[in-house]
Amino acid sequence: KQEVTQIPAALSVPEGENLVLNCSFTDSAIYNLQWFRQDPGKGLTSLLLIQSSQREQTSGRLNASLDKSSGRSTLYIAASQPGDSATYLCAAYRGSTLGRLYFGRGTQLTVWP
Amino acid sequence: DVKVTQSSRYLVKRTGEKVFLECVQDMDHENMFWYRQDPGLGLRLIYFSYDVKMKEKGDIPEGYSVSREKKERFSLILESASTNQTSMYLCASSLKYRTAYGYTFGSGTRLTVV
User: Fold this and answer.
1) Measured between alpha carbons, how far apart are the two ends of chain B, in Å?
2) DSSP for A24-78?
3) pLDDT tens series, chain B, 114 aa
4) Nearest residue in A to B42, CA atom
5) Residues A38, B107 contacting (CB under 8 angstroms)
6) Looking at the complex, does the CB of residue A51 fall below 8 Å from at least one CB of chain B?
7) Alpha-carbon distance A108 to nearest alpha carbon in chain B (angstroms)
8) Neighbouring-strand partners of residue A7
C-alpha cells in the first residue's frame, strides 16, 4: 500500500518568503503526483499535476518537482502572500485504470502580513 | 473545465435516518470516488466506481453503500446515519485512461448527524 507523508504538518511564515513543502511516498511505481490546495471548509482545488515521465511543473509562483527514485516531491511557492494561506495536499496515483489516489495529511500554511 | 457538483454544502440529519449524498460530473469521466475527511485522519477513501453499475470498496466502506446508475452520477448512501459519520464528504472524478488530466474534486458536503 502506498504511504504518503507530508512535512511539515504546519508552517507559519511572514509575507514574501519563498517556501518549500515536502511530500514523500513509499512506492516509487507512481504514475502521477498531484498537488491540491484546500481552503477551510472547502473542497480541493488542483494546483499542479506531474506525470511520472516529467520532473517538474510550473504555474505562476508555484513549482512542483518529482523525483521518483527517491520517493519525493516538493512544492515551491515563491514570494508567498497572505492569500496563499491554506492546506496543501499531495496525492500519488499508482497508475492502474482504477485510479485511486493516496493522500498525505497535508501542510497547513499560514502567511502573515 | 470539468465540474464536479455535490448537491448540498451542509446537511444536518438525525441518527438512524437514511442519507443520500449526490455527486454529478459533467465531463464524461469513467472514475468517480467518495472520500471523507476528518481532522487528524486526512482523506479516507470510502468507495469508488470505474464504470456504470460498478463499484469497489475503499478503505472504510462500513456503514456506507453507493449507487451508480448513470455515468455522470455517483451517490453515497448512509443506510442508518450515526454520529460517527459526522464529517466532510468529498466527491471526485477522473478519466480512466487519460491520466494527464488528473482528478477533479467537488466542493464538499459537511454532514452533521445529531
Assistant:
1) 37
2) EES-S--SEEEEEEE-TTS-EEEEEEEETT-SEEEETTEEEEEETTTTEEEEEE-
3) 659 999 899 999 999 999 999 999 998 889 999 999 998 888 999 999 988 989 999 999 999 999 999 999 999 999 999 999 999 999 999 887 666 678 899 999 999 999
4) A105
5) no
6) yes
7) 12
8) A22
